[in-house]
Description:
Elements lengths: L1 E2 L26 E3 L4 E3 L3 E2 L8 E6 L2 E8 L4 E4 L8 E5 L12 E3 L1 E6 L13 E5 L24 E6 L15 E8 L1 H7 L8 E5 L15 E4 L2 E9 L10 E5 L4 H10 L1
Antiparallel strand pairs: 1-16, 2-3, 4-13, 5-6, 5-8, 6-7, 7-11, 8-9, 10-11, 12-13, 12-15, 13-14, 14-17, 15-16, 16-17
Amino acid sequence: MASRASSPRLRPAPSSSSMKVLNIVLLLGAAVAPQASMQLRGQPCQPHSQPWQAAIFDRSRYNCGATLISNTWVLTAAHCHTGAIHVRLGKHSLYTHESTEQYKAVSKIITHPGYNYTNHSNDIMLLKLQTPAQLNAYVQPLGLASHCVAPGKQCSVSGWGNTINAPENVSIILYCTKVLTISEEECAATFPGHVNGNMLCAGLEGGGTDSCEGDSGGPLVCDGKLQGVVSWGDVPCISTLKPSVYMNVCKYYNWLTATMWEN
């Protein structure tokens, strides 16, 4: 099991030899697992149909996904804090300069005080932009979910994640896929001893992850609200039949709103 960050500089978590810190990525093609084959699903998003989607760069290198939640705040995973990060908004093609994009420096990084790198607890982080985003058709915030989602809900996840489990193969354009939320009991049974009440599982119908290296910090959107932040999952993500694990935004709603107000 691993958090899903694209940067190879993220060191393995010490709790288990099978738990590495990765960033989650949308799986797009077909892959063959050692014992079975699995058709991985996902397709290019309609350009700029996810105007809240943000990209976090560590200097010039793509690092994580994120979500614009107001004109001055971006929400992502805590393990995405790897160095001198900045935010790019209004992107579809990751490494192409687009007239729609906005480059934003970060003035403040606020990691949840209970974040635990080892077990992924409270893997959530707020970034305050140095200057407000200019809101338009290509850049729009997404509201936070104040209520938790029921199991079996169809939601969407998006990202520039890696299609073949290698950081150098980050997808060039934004990909989207549909997933179903999973009950707390089933989530906990899938990852014994690794899931707590602040986490949410979602995966493909029939089993399988929706994301992989490169999608960490990105949005899980249910009923037009930000319901989850991509955090971690089983590895290798390209062949697993297990769902992905998100920070459940409804459980952090009070902390998020209070922290933004105070800062």
